[in-house]
Amino acid sequence: MRTNSRAWARTSLTVLAIVGVIAMIVACGGAAPTAAPPTSAPAATSAPAATSAPAATTASGGSGNPVELTFFYPVAVPGPITQIIDGYIKQFEEQNPNIKVKPVLSGGYGDTMTKIQTTIKGGGTPPDVAVLLSTDLYSLTDADAIQPLDEYVKAAGGDSYTSDFQDAFLANSNSQGHIWSLPFQRSTPVLYYNKDLYKAAGLDPEKPPTTYQELVDYAKKLTKPDGSQWGIEISSDGIPYWLFQSFVIGNGGNVVTPGVANKVNFNGPDVVSALEDQAALALTEKVEPPGILAWANMPTDFVNGKTAMIYHSSGSLANILKQAKFPVGVSFPVGEKGYGAPTGGGNLYMLKNIPADHQDAAWKFIQFMTSPEIQADWSKNTGYIASRKSAYDTQLMKDYIAQTPQAAIGRDFLKYAKAELSTHNNAQVQKILGDAVQSVLTGKADAKTALDNAQKQADELLAQFPN
Fold first, then answer.
1. What SS3 state is found at 185?
2. How far is CA 123 from its chain centroid?
3. Which of the two ends of the chain, N or C, has the fewest CB atoms closer than 10 A to its terminal CB?
């Protein structure tokens, strides 16, 4: 493991880049709301049973006072997230009277990462637990900012414990032979579509597009010449690389190789054609508004009927269903070869150099927040995909999916999901690709030239790192 001084020297540029980049989703990004004072909320629908962890049940301060954990979490999708989190913490504290949790709404994902890095660099006290992007893993390990969870996972059952997590999500938790985090608020992009507008255009509302060409054909039928209704809108601000990855994966490729943190594939033929496809929606097919489209505006445009289809986070499901006055269809993004999307969203990390009793208490809290019952309730109230497979066996989730079948789509399509872009100097590398994507979507560059330049920049940036 690198020393802190060396690591922070290497990652200082990363800190600066993150300040200027809106890091999502996703899980899925979007602008974070202004922090508000915590409000009381009902307890979550189901209280998970306590799970075992080394010494966690006796965690307390040296004077016999309760251990007080600080918990940083971002908000990246609409909805009453703070009230839900407050409800979970109330449950946890009732089950664990020797542990108190101070929740801190820390802005967006990028804000949270920057605050933690700045605190550690300045010699301050980091939070005990934080929700950070799963793709922040290499930046965090390079900075020596987090600690592995190996011994706690082993005590909880090892492989039998981790095997209950969704494979596509847990893959983002491992590096250098260690498990560094557990999936919490995880997502993929999904396709939301207006079934009423499908019917009006002569389309079958139960048959969403399965390939890129079908997507274009549908969007043409759903677009009105006067601009009052668009066939599709796909966000291109904030984290444009994330939704672009859907086109690449749907083409049979990816921009990154899982587990390889010092190399990217930005200019392969499948990547170039994917960017040409995405750009064509606005520039040549004329089924999408031109220019940069804001992530935060997509759900509003959709529920107001301005667009018939959007790509957005599965974590936006609950809010979209609540606001829409029409039947909402949910499917998966597509490319030339079929379905495809990156995973997204945040994991729970334990920060390094916190006291031993805080470590035990933090693990207890991580277990609670990732328990099947909490994950079922979290998925129901937000739209995030439950990170535990057994969450879908709870009665709460069975009843919810029976009433809201759209909630099963994200889980069912995880078999088509691939790894999100994650490397050393991750924020800078993501920005390099995002800038290239935006330049092509706005007609300022052709896909091959933009992606060749992005590949060169990324190669130079990553050359200093071993895998």
1. strand
2. 29
3. N
Q: What angle do CA 302, 106, 21 make, to 5 degrees?
A: 65
CB-based contacts of 78: which residues, under 8 Å, 6+ apart? Answer: 30, 299, 316, 319
- Checking if the pLDDT of 53 tops 80, the result is no
Exposed, middle or buried, 117 (CB in 10 Å: 0-12/13-18/19+)? Answer: buried
Phi first, then psi: give them for residue 274, nearest 5 degrees: -65, -40
Q: Are 373 and 47 in contact (CB under 8 A)?
A: yes
Find out whether 375 and 386 touch, Cβ atoms under 8 Å.
yes
User: Above 60 in pLDDT, residue 433?
Assistant: yes
pTM metric for this prediction = 0.82
Task: Residue 197: count other Cβ atoms within 10 Å of its Cβ.
Answer: 19
For residue 241, the Cα-to-chain-centroid distance in whole angstroms is 13
Tell me how far apart the alpha carbons of residues 342 and 128 are, in angstroms, rounded to a whole number.
29
Most confident of 2-11, 58-67, 74-83, 230-239: 230-239
**Burial of residue 340, with CB atoms counted within 10 A of its CB: 0-12 exposed, 13-18 middle, 19 or more buried:** buried
Closest CA to 363 of 37, 46, 52: 52
d(C-alpha 97, C-alpha 101), whole Å: 11
DSSP character string of 46-115: SPPPP---TTGGG---TTSPPEEEEEEE---SSS-HHHHHHHHHHHHHHH-TTEEEEEEE--SHHHHHHH
**DSSP 8-state symbol, 226:** T
Do 368 and 43 contact (CB within 8 A), yes or no?
no
Using CA atoms, how far residue 442 sits from 231, 270, 278, in Å, is: 18, 20, 11
Please name the residue ranges forming H helices in 261-309.
269-283, 298-303
Report DSSP state, residue 286.
Answer: -
Rounded-to-integer distance, Cα 385 and Cα 397, Å = 11
Q: Which of 340, 365, 337, 338 is nearest to 351 (CA)?
A: 365
